[in-house]
């Protein structure tokens, strides 16, 4: 029985991974992957798209920066001299793929990434735009014990703020199950998933993913504007008896 459950969990994981990959392709297909040059457009029409992500069990945090002409779904741009893109005073080089278009990327060990960071964009005319952000992590300091689906799930946390919302995603090994995917508040350093939600899950191994996602408009951008999104995730597994 255990082997069957684990095989179902593995199959579900690969199906979910394939689905995420497909969604990623579809997401980027909604955005233009054409590549243009920033020096060929009005600098005030450049849209900033900044995405910063990390996960507890991955060793590195990733900073992905894109510049677009035509808004959030517009043509991706490379930045010609004297323009440049810097992260914490490190100058970044342009890269590209057929799926994403042009982008600038920086990776740094997650264990020393928490705190304030600076993104500096210099347009081809030499004008600078500085954007700062804070990145913070959290943890689940104790193992999650097995529970019954008639119980509530209490998740102890560390490094969270009172009242902040975390996305809670719970998946079982049954293909037809919808699982749980909702935003819940943190109170007294814990999140409580009600038993009404857990009744939607089948007995057996459960995969938990907690995510902190913050998205806000660029503060120091062009007239076109932009967005900056930070995401940090923690994964755990436990059993429903």
Topology:
Layout: H1 2-30, E1 35-37, E2 46-55, E3 60-69, E4 75-78, E5 84-87, E6 90-92, E7 94-97, E8 101-109, E9 115-122, E10 128-135, E11 153-156, E12 165-171, E13 180-185, E14 190-193, H2 195-198, E15 204-217, E16 226-240
Parallel strand pairs: 1-4, 2-16
Antiparallel strand pairs: 2-3, 3-4, 3-8, 5-6, 5-9, 7-8, 9-10, 11-14, 12-13, 12-15, 15-16
The assigned CATH architecture of the largest domain is Sandwich
H/E series, N to C? Answer: HEEEEEEEEEEEEEEHEE
**Rg calc:** 21 Å
Overall mean pLDDT: 88
- Percentage of residues assigned to helices: 10-25%
Number of helices: 2
What is the CATH class of the largest domain?
Answer: Mainly Beta
Any idea of the CATH topology of the largest domain? Immunoglobulin-like
Structure description:
The structure is a single chain. This protein has 241 residues and is mainly beta. The chain has 2 domains: 34-136 and 215-233, Sandwich (Immunoglobulin-like); 137-214 and 235-240, Sandwich (Immunoglobulin-like), CATH 2.60.40. The protein is 14% helix and 47% strand. The protein contains 2 helices and 16 strands. The chain has helices at 2-30, 195-198; strands at residues 35-37, 46-55, 60-69, 75-78, 84-87, 90-92, 94-97, 101-109, 115-122, 128-135, 153-156, 165-171, 180-185, 190-193, 204-217, 226-240. Strands 1, 2, 3, 4, 7, 8, 12, 13, 15 and 16 form a 10-stranded mixed sheet that branches. Strands 6-5-9-10 form a 4-stranded antiparallel sheet, with no helix packed on it. It has a two-stranded antiparallel ribbon with strand order 11-14. The longest helix is centred in the N-terminal third of the chain and has 29 residues, at 2-30.
